[in-house]
Design a protein that fits this description.
GO terms for molecular function: RNA binding. The chain is α+β, with helices and mostly antiparallel strands. It contains four helices and four strands; from the N terminus they run ααβααβββ.
């Protein structure tokens, strides 16, 4: 039996955020759809963390709509934006005031949407990493 629901969707979002190359991302996206009917997308981002927060949310919503993970509706857009903000809030203590670069992974199965943010945090040559995860349910 194929596991679905919030746990499977969260795992899919994390895996998408951890992909290293565009081809790996496309392969995982295809596999998630074929094996579990999970729609997924990933998008890169980077910059100074404080100034990047609104761009991260915007990129997540736009990518999810562009790839058909969500519909162009207020509830769907709000779910992705809310889950993205939740993921960001988990990263703030490590990233505040520093430069970051990473990937946003978004996954959906039926009414479950998860957003995972994986980022590298630059401080001279002492890089740190962080991951944040948010989940929302939509009708």
């Amino acid at each position: 039996m194929v596991e679905t629901g919030s746990k499977a969707v969260a795992a899919a979002a994390i895996k998408m955020a951890l992909t290293a190359t565009r081809s790996e991302e496309m392969e995982l996206k295809k596999r998630l759809w074929e094996e579990k009917s999970i729609r997924a997308v990933a998008v890169d981002y980077g910059g100074e963390f404080i100034y990047s927060v609104s761009k991260i949310v915007e990129r997540a919503v736009v990518a999810a709509k562009r790839e058909g993970v969500i519909k162009d509706t207020h509830p769907d857009e709000g779910a992705v934006a809310g889950a993205t903000r939740e993921a960001i809030s988990q990263i703030i203590p490590k990233a505040l005031g520093l430069n970051v670069g990473g990937k946003i992974g978004i996954a959906r199965y039926q009414d479950h949407i998860s957003v995972a943010i994986f980022l590298g945090i630059g401080l001279l040559h002492l890089d740190e990493v962080a991951i944040g995860l948010g989940h929302r349910a939509v009708p």
